[in-house]
Amino acid sequence: MTKITSQVAQFITNTDYENLTIEAKEQAKYCFMDWIGVSMIGASEEASQIVSHFIKKQDCKKEATIINQNIKTSTFFAALANGISSHVLDLDDIYPWGPGHPSATVIPTALAMAEKLGSSGVEMLKAIIIGFQVQFAIGEAIMPQHYKEGWHNTSTLGRFGSTSAAASLLKMSTKKTMNALGIAATSTGGLKGVFGSMSKSFNAGKAGMDGILAVLLADQGFDSVEDSLENDKGFIHVFASVSNESNVIKALKGPLVIERVRPKKYASCYSTHSIIECMLSIHNQLGYSPKAKDIKSITYIVHPRCLEIAAISNPVSPLEARFSTQFCGASALKKGKMNIEDFSKKDIKDLEIIHLMYKTNFIVKEEYQKDRKAKAVIEFNNGQKLESSINLFELTKDRVESNENIKRKFNILLSRIKSENSTRKLKDTILNLENISNIKEEFIPLLDLK
Questions:
Q1: Domains along the chain?
Q2: pLDDT of residue 99
């Protein structure tokens, strides 16, 4: 049996920042920027507010910051709250070539631990890169079967990403890191069945929280088995009926996955984005908002995962609307835009949007899965027919363009809550994070600038 757990632990403990690619180091900063912007806005959502209110009632050591809440709490609760805030809007980043949202699990842990320990910017960036890589590598052994069987991979695999980041920052030995991975493995959970509710973002936050718990317990001598990933009752074989553990080692060797992580443009499930783009294109072709009464049918040709997880036909909350391709497409066609505020209770009850949703039907094409392709076709009662198709990966493959989009997105998001000067200072600091010697003293105070 290949010693998978041991090799993962060695990757975590032996990775040298100096040997990482320039592209990975730069992308880690942009992922961090995107995460900060999304989390600061997400902190005002109801799910985030409920959790923060709960945490304020607890008697915790003040070790780490809950973003945009003016709360200091334990590293555990900071990771939980910030993970929820970063994921609740479904605006956090995506690794298009391997489903999941790595920043929502890795970065809350990395920031909380870096603040607690007074780590440098370089140490935190290294932890983020390592966390992303381990989260992806273990996923390569069990995906896509793991996801098909109902597990929320951001949550399950996220525990390994967060554990890896925390272990890196704590500079743990390989032996203790193996134990931490084992503790994380037996802590794993997270169901796709809760999508469309607050519990989806809880999955991400809990993954970050559990990663810190695993590492701090292991650091105190709490042990686990040395083969928690690969033994016949271990994570890989229990959490997927079809798996290939050798893929873990291949993925650890590169390329570095963080170089291909991309920001999300819309505050909804990534599987809705292709249809949103198609319907915005059709709206632009028309030059006006068509009425549902004039439309005979709306047909979406999509990949299988879209229908599996993002086709709630009658959403009754903004959270459900983010997982309704029907709603997203109808809203985009009517409004010619798709911003955060377009997922409101008012929009869900908009009769015109509802009537457009009723006109919708799906055709599923397996071959569309690879590149997240989609096609939308609208037939009007007068015989007019308009269509639009897209390859979503083509819009996200350019890293430089993607990072420019992150900067624009960051400015737009923070303009809602911060002054232009404080936003610029925060952004500039993130882009020079390698020059920060102490995250707690030199970065955390910037989050409070108005």
A1: 4-264+418-448 (1.10.4100.10), 270-395 (3.30.1330.120)
A2: 62
